[in-house]
């Protein structure tokens, strides 16, 4: 559920913890408020406080759980300056003219980004700035004697029954992710627009949906996994890493959670940070984005949320545990990007998804 944080400056000493940015005269030209819309648990919130404190900009911060939720809210008239859409949603929003092109000279810290992340299929003209990247697969507790290696762990009735008996399953409440995983399990593309294939994926999910303990894509990494509410979860790799960070102990120095890309494949993503086309505070939004790209700040974000970022300057500052949750070269070859859908296909996906959520 979205939460609103109207962040206030806390203590003056906090600002020295974070990388400074810009001259005082630069800060005086900034707007006094900035509206930011991000995924839940997807930034170091102390960093927001530090920015407020250093530059006198009040940040109004809201969270969303899916790209579709974010898109719908913007379409309904919500006014945000900075957003964090995934690759396919960036492409969709660019096509609709909903994203402003970042002015390169206002974001000089783009120089820290690796070229591969900047040269993307979904944003060829670099309207936005890459933020994080990763993949979806399966997170599992280290106590499992036979770790999963297939999407069958989520969709095969016998395997679902086994993992339910061992502690329960969570799947993501995300249309493109859950349907995409079922499509891959069946040997289809995660971007299928064939009704027969989507209906087969729907039926595959509904066949076992009553066995799922949770449909949660918002905060499972902080709630369900650390508390052992489930033994296995459909997961993004960074969220699995966050659960591992939260369960570190003397007995488990690398935490209690692991991550695997199923043999059938997984879904790859890259999140970006963008300025909305409707923002009247574009220069302030760009200043904030440049602040996030300071290597020290980028590393703090990764260490707080569990996802690695494409900031070359931050690599040596990131917790080494996070790198253990990256897909291997072999696994990367099995990943598929989510692509934007045309309007007719979106209506079909929405129809199928509604049937799943009603039936599940």
Report on the structure:
The chain has helices at residues 24-28, 45-55, 67-75, 87-95, 115-118, 152-155, 157-166, 175-185, 195-206, 237-246, 282-292, 295-305, 320-323, 329-332, 343-359, and strands spanning 4-6, 33-39, 58-64, 82-83, 99-100, 129-141, 169-171, 214-215, 232-236, 257-260, 266-276, 335-337. The protein is an alpha/beta fold. The protein folds into two domains: 4-133 and 270-321, 3-Layer(aba) Sandwich (D-Maltodextrin-Binding Protein, domain 2), CATH 3.40.190; 135-268 and 329-359, 3-Layer(aba) Sandwich (D-Maltodextrin-Binding Protein, domain 2). Strands 1, 2, 3, 4, 5, 6, 7, 8, 9, 10, 11 and 12 form a twelve-stranded mixed β-sheet that branches. The chain is globular, with a radius of gyration of 20 Å. The protein starts with a strand and ends with a helix.
Number of domains: 2
> How far apart, in Å, are the first and last alpha carbons?
19 Å
What integer is the average pLDDT?
93
Number of strands: 12
User: What are the secondary-structure elements, in order, as H or E?
Assistant: EHEHEHEHEHEHHEHHEEHEEHHHHEH
Proportion of beta-strand residues: 15-25%
User: CATH top level of the largest domain?
Assistant: Alpha Beta
Q: Please tally the helical runs, counting DSSP H or I stretches of 4 or more residues.
A: 15
Q: What does the overall shape look like?
A: globular
CATH superfamily of the largest domain: Periplasmic binding protein-like II
Task: Bin the helical content.
Answer: 25-40%
What is the CATH T-level topology of the largest domain? D-Maltodextrin-Binding Protein, domain 2
| Structural class label | alpha/beta
